[in-house]
Design brief:
By secondary structure, this protein is of the alpha/beta class. It has a single domain, classed as Rossmann fold (3-Layer(aba) Sandwich), CATH 3.40.50. The chain is about 40% helix and about 15% strand.
Amino acid sequence: MGTSNVTHRRVATNGIELHVAECGPADGRPVVLCHGFPELWYSWRHQLPVLAAAGYRAIAPDLRGYGDSDHPDRVEDYGIGPLTADLLGLVDALGANNPIFVGHDWGALIVWDLARLHPERVSAMCAMSVPLFAPPAPPTEMFDRLFKDQFFYILYFQEVGPAEEELARDPRVTMRRMLWSISGAALAGRESPLAAPRPREGTGFLDTLADPPDQLPDWLTEEDVDYYAASFRRSGFFGPVSYYRNLDANWQGTKDIPIDTISMPSCFIGGALDPVIGRSRAGIKIMEELPDFRGATLIEGAGHWNQQEKADETNAALLEFLDKV
């Protein structure tokens, strides 16, 4: 079963429409797959048919601002309130009862907050790449103190205009460099290019990424890059980057909710070489305090894009979790 078995449609939810890819039996237990930055439903192309073959109803939306979904034009439209309402409206519109939510990267952040804000709507959850994030202060304030005069992409993303303009100049170059630079193949035996110190002034996001080789690794084809590039050429990057512009507001809206509100079965899957995890393992320690945390799986050789780089290993870990909840 390949992606030819995946069906596509637009679904009205929370005042917008989301493009949704689906695979599997209509009466299967729903698993909602939430992508990260800068990704699409396509990032789950290796999971959709495998989940379907196991009897699950796999549902992978392009999140708002991405792909063929609607693209609201205000920064505040990309806060955690609208993002979680989109997902709840989506499962209601699809009649997808008792859903399990899986999120990678920004999708993980959304699912963590969904589990805190609406725990009664989340029967189980799996986060990939980004552990539970519960900082003691507004995130941008912490990053500002930590990086001082050094470039840090999240701080660069805060101003409307420069980041999305830079990324949109050549979406194919952007996606090729992004997908390569924080993959396991690029990071094996070397530090993430994102970690190299650079001055905050005069540095752009693409300056921090490595040039990919002429021959891409086996997990990433030129056709894959073409798919991403064509989508971002149509949509631009304002919406995706604006997720980051809501980090402080999201923190304000969730900081007083105890983490043990996440009492449903939960797990974590990530790449052992993922720089997000490498920057700090504190998030894994925090997750271990959750009432029903089923464990963390770190996949050897995988970087940030674990569900694409090491699809078989990711699928095995995900199915092991799903089959027990």
